[in-house]
């Protein structure tokens, strides 16, 4: 049943608030699990945190795809990558000691960014290939999944045995175990708490999808714009909250890898959306606005990678040039979306 704006907007905001509150609770739990398991902030942030904070966005895209809203499904996932990347610029502003990308540099984060760029290139290839589908899936979809799994294995290998290290400076923050904030909880109980929070985020994501489509119907806005500007931002609130909380805790690698890992997993929204979209290949059910979003995400990811490689120490007011560029590119992308409505 479709809701009018007087109900859809408040429910949308309630779901967004639930996502934000749930995201706060996940930061300390993820940091503690990283120390207890010995996997480290970069790996836990890039895989566990990245996947679990993406649950709400996953549910949003799948729900939209099953209901036949291909544009919303794709723009929600890819638009989330753009907004989550700019969250690191917000974290850079918050972290006053130095440029965040300088202090959080790691081989693992660079591998994850390389994987992200590879994954973003594959949907562009799919959109220019013949519109074929096997068992309801375009051939690129299983390739995306296989590349992601291989990338996770590579990330783990680099984390265990890195072949190069960032130059150590006074500003570089190295991942070190901290005092356990949950001494009364076993690791199993802590994992269960984490799983419960992830389930709550997934339910809130379903609510975001439903109310988001009601807003589309009531306002006449395009699915692409609503997906990129509204649902993607709302379902990305856990990443914003966790990024800022991690920066304040000094867990800088957790902050960066959580964003990059979440972005990498978000590309898999396209695989799930392709499976849920029954009329055919979802890559050929979208148009130029969605392809622009993919290019937008590639440009922002490349800027972030260059910032991690260059490692400017302070920049303007301790904000790196890459953060200024990310904000500018993000705002420009939003303007293009508004112009295209």
Automatic annotation (TrEMBL):
Pfam families from the UniProt entry: Na_Ca_ex (PF01699)
Main localisation: membrane
GO molecular function, one term: calcium, potassium:sodium antiporter activity
Intracellular or extracellular location(s): Membrane
GO cellular component: plasma membrane
Keywords: Membrane, Transmembrane, Transmembrane helix
Lineage: superkingdom: Bacteria
Membrane-traversing stretches: 6-30, 42-66, 72-95, 107-126, 132-151, 194-213, 254-271, 291-309, 316-340
GO BP terms: intracellular calcium ion homeostasis
Annotated membrane topology: Multi-pass membrane protein
Every Sodium/calcium exchanger membrane region domain range: 9-125, 195-339
Entries under InterPro entries matching the protein: K/Na/Ca-exchanger (IPR004481), NaCa_Exmemb (IPR004837), NCX_ion-bd_dom_sf (IPR044880)
Record's protein name: Cation:H+ antiporter
Native organism: Limimonas halophila
């Amino acid at each position: 049943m479709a809701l009018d704006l007087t109900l859809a907007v408040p429910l949308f905001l309630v779901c967004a608030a639930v996502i934000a509150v749930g995201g706060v609770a996940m930061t300390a739990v993820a940091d503690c699990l990283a120390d207890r398991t010995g996997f480290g902030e970069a790996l836990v942030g890039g895989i566990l945190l990245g996947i679990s904070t993406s649950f709400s966005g996953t549910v949003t895209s799948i729900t939209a795809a099953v209901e036949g809203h291909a544009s919303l499904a794709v723009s929600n996932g890819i638009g989330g990558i753009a907004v989550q990347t700019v969250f690191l610029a917000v974290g850079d502003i918050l972290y006053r000691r130095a440029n965040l990308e300088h202090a959080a540099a790691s081989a693992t984060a660079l591998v994850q960014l390389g994987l992200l760029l590879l994954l973003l290139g594959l949907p562009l290839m799919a959109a220019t290939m013949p519109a074929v589908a096997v068992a309801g899936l375009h051939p690129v979809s299983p390739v995306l999944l296989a590349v992601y799994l291989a990338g996770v294995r590579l990330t783990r290998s680099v984390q265990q045995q890195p072949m190069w290290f960032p130059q150590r400076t006074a500003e570089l923050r190295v991942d070190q175990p901290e005092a356990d904030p949950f001494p009364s909880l076993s690791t199993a109980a802590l994992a269960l708490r984490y799983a419960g929070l992830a389930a709550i985020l997934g339910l809130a994501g379903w609510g975001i999808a439903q109310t988001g489509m009601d807003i589309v119907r009531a306002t006449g806005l395009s699915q692409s714009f609503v997906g990129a500007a509204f649902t993607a931002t709302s379902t990305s609130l856990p990443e914003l909250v966790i990024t800022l909380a991690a920066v304040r805790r000094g867990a800088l690698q957790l902050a960066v890898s959580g964003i990059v890992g979440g972005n990498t997993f978000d590309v898999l929204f396209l695989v799930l959306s392709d499976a849920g979209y029954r009329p055919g290949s979802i890559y050929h059910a979208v148009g130029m606005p969605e392809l622009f979003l993919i290019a937008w995400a590639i440009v922002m990811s490349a800027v972030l990678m260059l910032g991690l490689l260059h490692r400017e120490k302070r920049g303007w007011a301790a904000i790196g040039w890459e953060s200024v560029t990310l904000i500018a590119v993000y705002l420009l992308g939003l303007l293009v979306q508004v112009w295209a409505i």
